[in-house]
Amino acid sequence: LASLADRETLWKTILSAPRAAMLFAVGLSIAAIVIGSIRWWLLLRYLHSSIGYQAVLPSYYLGIFCNNFLPTGMGGDIVRILHLNLRGFQTKELIGSAIVDRTVGLGSVLIMGTVSILLSPDLRFGAVTQLTLVALTVGMFAGIGLFLSERLLVGIERLAQRYSYTRKRRTVLEVVSLCQTYKTAKGPLLAGIALTLIMQTAVILVYYLLGRGLGIELSMLTYFAVIPIVFIAASLPISIGGLGVREGVLVTLLTAAHADQQLAITLSLIYLGVLWLSSLPGVLVVFGDPYTGLRTNKS
Tens place of pLDDT for every residue, the chain, 299 residues? Predict the structure, then answer.
């Protein structure tokens, strides 16, 4: 991207970007993070009914902040699990709820992206690509259905008994078993899907407003098709925090939708700045929360 960018034009475009739109974008991005924390809290509360939202938000936000420095766009999940574990919550419940949280999020985003790609007036994919996207969506839900089946549950229980004296294997099986209990949690799952759609819409709106401010004339529906793909690509184990992957996929898809390449590169960099700014409150947890260990070491 750096080699493709016209440095002078890029700098001028960034300086001319509307400040009010950027501030609003940061606010929307923070709102999306808060919505994501509510989703995890609802799913975690199904396994641990006494946990309060005030305990979940700092851990979740710390994980979002650490996502910027850890492999893939999901490295912060380990941080939020460890942070809540230091508060005395069970590791198995935290891991199980985090897995379901990510599954609900990725599934909802995949559906949103697939439907939007099929309807977008700016993106024209061939029949093979469209069928592949539909097949991926159907395959994912078929896999989830298999995972939640009674037959698999019986097999897991048998394996748990067989490896009852093997700590690591038993722990993995118990986490899988906890994930399976969510098949009866229709309320939390539906709420999680709804919150994911709201959260993703907020992120898409951030991209759309910033793009419009830069002069990218693409429909909102095109962003609904592009951003879910960007989100999934950034989650792949390729780079630190999805850096480069997120921006490269965004520029490629926007260019395919006939957006100006220089403006697409500028949008990718401005959004990166918005993402970093909106995740900054997570660093306050490191310095202000005794459960991180920093204050404990000083005392």
Answer: 878 878 887 787 777 777 888 889 999 999 999 999 999 999 999 988 888 999 899 999 999 999 988 887 778 899 999 999 888 888 888 998 998 898 888 888 888 887 887 787 777 667 776 677 778 778 877 776 666 666 666 666 666 666 656 666 667 777 877 777 888 888 999 999 999 999 999 999 999 999 998 889 999 999 998 999 899 888 888 888 889 999 999 999 999 888 999 899 999 999 999 999 999 999 888 776 655 544 434 33
User: Considering only CA atoms, which of 25, 3, 71, 36 is closest in space to residue 267?
Assistant: 25
For helices 220-234 and 245-256, angle between their N-to-C axes, nearest 10 degrees? 150
Residue that is written with structure tokens 């891991």 in the block = 95
For residue 71, the SS3 value is strand
Q: Report yes or no: 291 and 27 within 8 Å, Cβ to Cβ.
A: no
- Residue 226, judged by CB atoms within 10 A of its CB (0-12, 13-18, 19+), counts as buried
Cβ within 8 Å of residue 165, ≥6 positions away: none
Q: How far apart are CA 106 and CA 192, in angstroms?
A: 11
Question: 3-class DSSP state for residue 46?
Answer: helix
The answer to whether 233 touches 242, Cβ cutoff 8 Å, is yes
d(CA 32, CA 24): 12
Buried b (16+ CB within 10 A) or exposed e, 178-214: bbbebeebeebbebbbebbeebbbbbbbbbbbbbebb
Residue 84: other Cβ atoms inside 10 A? 28
pTM of the model: 0.82
Query: How is residue 235 annotated by DSSP?
Result: T
